[in-house]
Amino acid sequence: MKYFFAFIFACVSFIIQAQNQPWQGKFEPIDNLMAPVNTYRTASGAPGNAYWQQRADYKIKAIIDETNNTLTGEETITYYNNSPDDLSYLWIQLEQNVNKKENEDFGAINNSLKNGINTRQMQFLTRAIDFPAGYSIKYIKDTNGKPLTSIVNNTMMKVLLDAPLTSGATLTFSIGWSYPITDRSMYLLSREGYEYFPEDDNTVYLIAHWFPRMAVYNDTEGWQNQQFQKLGEFALEFGDYDVEITVPADHVVASTGALQNPENVLTKTQRKRLSAASKSFDKPMMIITQKEALENESSKSKKQKTWKYKAKNVRDFAFASSRKFMWDAQAVKLPTNTVMAMSYYPKEGLPVWQEASTKAIKHALEVYSEATFDYPYPVCISVNTSNIGMEFPMISFNGGRPKDGKISKAAKASMIGTIIHEVGHNWFPMIVSSDERKWMWMDEGLNTFLHQRTVAERYPEFNSVTPKSIAPFMNGDKNVLRPIMTTSDNELFNQFGANFYIKPTVGLQMLRNSIVGKALFDAAFKEYANRWKYKHPNPSDLFRTLEDATATDLDWFFRGWFFTTDNVDVELANVKWFKVQEEDRNIEDQTKSTQVTAEGNNTPEVPKDFSNGPEVITMTTTPDKNYGGFLSRMDDAAIRKQLSGKNLYEVTIKNVGGLVMPVIIEWVFTDGTTEIDRLPAQIWRRNEYEVKEVFIKEKEVETVNLDPNFEFADTDMSNNVFPKAKRNSEFDTFKKNKTK
Question: Which of 346, 382, 490, 594 could bridge across to 324 with cysteines, CB 3.0–4.6 Å?
Answer without folding.
Answer: 346
